[in-house]
Amino acid sequence: MKSAPFDYVRVGSLAEAHAVLAAEGGDAAVIAGGQTLVPLLSMRMARPKVLVDIMRVPELAVIVAENDSIRVGAAVRQAELLAWPELGASQPLLALALPWVGHAQTRARGTVCGSIALADPSAELPLCLVALGGDVVLSSKGGRRTVAADDFFTGLMSTDRRDDELIEAVRFPGRRTSEGFAFREFARRHGDFAIVACAAVANEKVLRLAIGGVADRPVARDFKGLDGAALDDALDAFASELDARDDLHATADYRRMLVRKLGRTTIEEARRCRA
Q: Are residues 65 and 166 both part of a single domain?
């Protein structure tokens, strides 16, 4: 199937992108890597009147380490972040999770912010953003605002972004002293969407576990001073609260089991990796 007709605008600046979005509102769609949007266009599941291509905006194509965080612009491809020389030292969780994002071919085109914008509950990058407590920088003709990851993802492929806004960047907190990280995922095949994915961040005070692929968005829970049977009970309660559902890939009971087992493994690995 071919896409419905649309106008195409390749912008060269943020101001130009903001102007188009302000004029077109919900009839416009921002395209960067296009790894999800292009198939949706082809199946006519998305029918924008205008496509706004932001990949030629210079200030969106940079990765910047600033104020103990990593700022990733909207035109940065997933492969570029994975190849960034400072990634392993600056944020190990991203270095662990990015190889699980699709395949080398899709990472070469797909953007980091595009994955955040799509808000698929099984996707690895939204999960990491929630696990780390990062935020999303949104901008429009009216100004700029920053939204915490926990507030940005509002439901199944639904976010707090307004029609006249684009995601200018996402910010991942950098590694802090004595933090350990772990990432685990279970899927039918490597590169498929996760049936359950787990991201853990451990420090001397708290253990934060985020789960993807179960609820309608990534969900994180903080565990303090729990181990042994107490941790098992807490994970069991967490799994039960995630509103898992049966689908073609797994039953709700199977997903809850994975949260308990895979979650425990991820927690133990994060604790061992504390530096």
A: yes
Angle separating helix axes 228-241 and 252-272, nearest 10 degrees: 140
pTM of the model: 0.95
Residues 46 and 121 in one domain: no
Domain membership of residue 1 (yes or no) is no
> Going by C-beta distance under 8 Å and a sequence separation of 6 or more, which residues neighbour residue 87?
70, 81, 94, 95, 98
Domain final residue, candidates 149, 173, 197? 173
Tokens of 190: 């490597």
The pLDDT of residue 71 is 98
From the list 234, 237, 117, the residue with the least C-alpha distance to 168 is 117
Owner of token pair 């980091």: 112
**Residue whose token pair is 């990432």:** 183
Both tokens of 32, joined, read: 């960067």
Distance, in Å, from the CA atom of 271 to the CA atom of 183, rounded to the nearest integer, reads: 12
CA-to-CA distance for 230 and 116, rounded, in angstroms?
A: 34
Q: What is the DSSP letter of 217?
A: S
The Cα–Cα gap between 81 and 65 comes to 12
Cα 136 from Cα 262, distance rounded (Å): 28
Distance CA 161, CA 242 (A): 24
Total domain count for the chain?
Answer: 3
Task: Determine the pLDDT at residue 275.
Answer: 57
Domain boundary among 173, 206, 234: 173
Return d(Cα 166, Cα 150) in angstroms, integer. Answer: 18
Q: Does residue 193 have a pLDDT over 90?
A: no
The answer on 143 and 64 residing in a single domain is yes
Q: What is the pLDDT of residues 199-236, one digit of tens each?
A: 999 998 899 999 999 999 999 999 998 888 999 999 99
In 3D space, the residue among 14, 8, 11, 48 whose CA is nearest the CA of residue 28 turns out to be 48
